């Protein structure tokens, strides 16, 4: 499932695989069409070097290949596909893409069975769809307001498969009063802080098991790879199985954690604040190359794909539940004191411990970062400044300065968060 579209008109997309049951004549027709489209795609490749944009590419090749008799919309889809595949030299397989209702349609037969009508070439054919689990899912989704947008048809293991793409318009997001800072860490998947004026402070560490589990998978993989290198076929099969297991484990846990966070956000009417992942990656690369993070072993343990997976999952689930997601630049969130706002590198004592050099406020480093993120989110959303944890502290801090006077432009620029001037005193 993906989220696409611009800011004003957003929609989400989901893909459901379905099995088709074409008869022999139709299978022949499909094979012919697919071969033709594949040849067309390979013929297009040399023209790519002559143009600089997708539109110019279309003008250059569209009329030249019109005689082939491929449906115009299918032809355009292939052109787009070829142009966007930057490094492709030859295409060995290419799914046929059909857009509803221009070159395809999803209907019912007179007997009430589901069929898809597609026209890869000029002729339109109807293909029956298996009434399996996939089709039941489609029916369920349709009841929930999803509509069929397009489909991809290709041959897989001697049978014809269709990937049906469904779309749904996103509802507008709700009004918010508080924020949830989500810090994505190496040891703990997500450290969260619920910062809301009328709810108690909730702070949780979610996904502690992921790093350990991934480490376990890694050790197992290392052993199996040794055997596989010696030519052990069983080890090779086990490796493939292991890869799937790991993927499914991480996917499931990411979705579970995301659901927990979204539930909390819905309960407390809060926005979810996450850091910009692009920046995070760059930071890690810098740190890894500097040798601060212990080189190869650490770099491997970063497992970046699971972080981007978590970000995507959280964004998607939040949008489905109408929870606003705010992306902030995480500059200095790990070096700034969430209590007094003093920024110093020396405050980060170890990787896990944060202890402010100014006010002696000591806290877990991930928790500190997630608190800072929740404050940054308040600033970006224009909410009044509030920090829930200050009331829990036994000592008052004179240096407690607030970031409400920092402008939004400064948050989005590079170095703003550390220099915070006081405007609203908190007891
Ligand atoms: Zn401090």
Question: How do the strands and helices of this protein lay out in sequence?
Answer:
Layout: E1 2-4, E2 11-19, H1 24-44, H2 54-61, H3 72-84, E3 96-99, E4 104-108, E5 114-118, E6 125-128, H4 133-143, E7 147-156, E8 159-169, E9 178-183, E10 190-195, E11 202-206, H5 208-229, H6 233-268, E12 270-275, H7 277-290, H8 296-301, H9 304-320, E13 325-328, E14 353-355, E15 362-364, H10 365-381, H11 408-412
Parallel strand pairs: 9-12, 12-13
Antiparallel strand pairs: 1-2, 2-8, 3-7, 4-5, 5-6, 7-8, 9-10, 10-11, 14-15
Helix pairs in contact: 1-3, 2-3, 5-6, 6-9
Bound molecules: zinc ion (ZN).
Residues 337, 339-340, 342, 356, 358-359, 361 line the site of zinc ion (ZN).
Q: What CATH architecture of the largest domain do you see?
A: 2-Layer Sandwich
* Quaternary form: single chain
Whole-angstrom Rg: 27 Å
Following the backbone from N to C, one meets helices and strands in this order, namely: EEHHHEEEEHEEEEEHHEHHHEEEHH
Write down the CATH class of the largest domain. Alpha Beta
Spatially, the strands of the biggest sheet line up as: 1-2-8-7-3
Into which percentage range does the β-strand content fall?
A: 15-25%
Q: Give the overall silhouette.
A: elongated
Tally of domains: 2
The residue fraction in helices comes out at 25-40%
Overall average residue pLDDT: 82
Tell me the distance between the termini. Answer: 46 Å
Number of strands: 15
Per CATH, what is the topology of the largest domain?
Nucleotidyltransferase, domain 5
Quickly count the helices: 11
* Main sheet characteristics: 5 strands, antiparallel
Query: Regions with pLDDT < 50 over 5+ consecutive residues?
Result: 396-427
Q: Bound compounds, please?
A: zinc ion
């Amino acid at each position: 499932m993906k989220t696409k579209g611009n800011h004003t008109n957003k929609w989400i997309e989901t893909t459901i695989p379905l099995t088709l049951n074409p008869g022999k004549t139709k299978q022949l027709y499909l094979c012919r069409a697919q071969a033709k489209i594949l040849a067309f795609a390979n013929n297009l490749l040399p023209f790519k070097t002559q143009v600089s944009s997708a539109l110019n590419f279309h003008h250059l090749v569209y009329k030249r290949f019109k005689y082939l008799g491929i449906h115009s919309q299918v032809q355009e889809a292939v052109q787009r596909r070829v142009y966007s595949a930057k490094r492709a030299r030859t295409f060995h397989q290419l799914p046929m893409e059909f857009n509803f209702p221009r070159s395809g349609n999803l209907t019912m037969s007179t007997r009430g069975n589901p069929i898809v009508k597609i026209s890869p070439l000029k002729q339109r054919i109807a293909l029956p769809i298996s009434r399996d689990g996939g089709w039941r899912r489609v029916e369920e989704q349709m009841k929930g307001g999803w509509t069929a947008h397009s489909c991809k048809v290709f041959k897989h293991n001697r049978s014809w498969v269709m990937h049906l793409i469904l779309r749904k318009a996103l509802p507008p997001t709700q009004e918010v009063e508080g924020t949830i800072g989500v810090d994505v860490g190496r040891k703990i998947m997500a450290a969260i802080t619920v910062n809301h004026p009328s709810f108690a402070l909730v702070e949780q560490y979610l996904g502690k098991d992921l790093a350990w589990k991934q480490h376990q998978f890694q050790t197992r993989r290392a052993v199996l790879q040794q055997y596989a290198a010696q030519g052990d076929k069983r080890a090779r099969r086990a490796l493939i199985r292991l890869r799937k297991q790991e993927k499914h484990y991480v996917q499931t846990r990411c979705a579970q954690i995301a659901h927990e966070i979204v539930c909390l956000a819905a309960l407390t009417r809060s926005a979810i604040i996450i850091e910009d992942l692009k920046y995070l990656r760059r930071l890690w690369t810098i740190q890894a190359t500097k040798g601060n993070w212990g080189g190869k072993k650490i770099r491997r343990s970063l497992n970046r794909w699971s972080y981007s997976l978590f970000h995507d999952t959280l964004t998607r689930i939040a949008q489905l539940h109408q929870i606003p997601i705010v992306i902030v630049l995480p500059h200095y969130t790990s070096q700034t004191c969430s209590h007094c706002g003093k920024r110093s590198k020396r405050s980060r004592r170890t990787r896990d411990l944060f202890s402010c050099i100014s006010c002696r406020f000591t806290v877990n480093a991930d928790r500190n970062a997630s608190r800072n993120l929740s404050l940054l989110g308040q600033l970006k959303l224009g909410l009044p400044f509030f920090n829930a944890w200050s009331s829990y502290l036994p000592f008052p801090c004179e240096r407690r300065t607030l970031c409400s006077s920092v402008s939004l432009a400064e948050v989005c620029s590079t170095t703003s968060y550390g220099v915070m001037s006081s405007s609203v005193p908190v007891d």
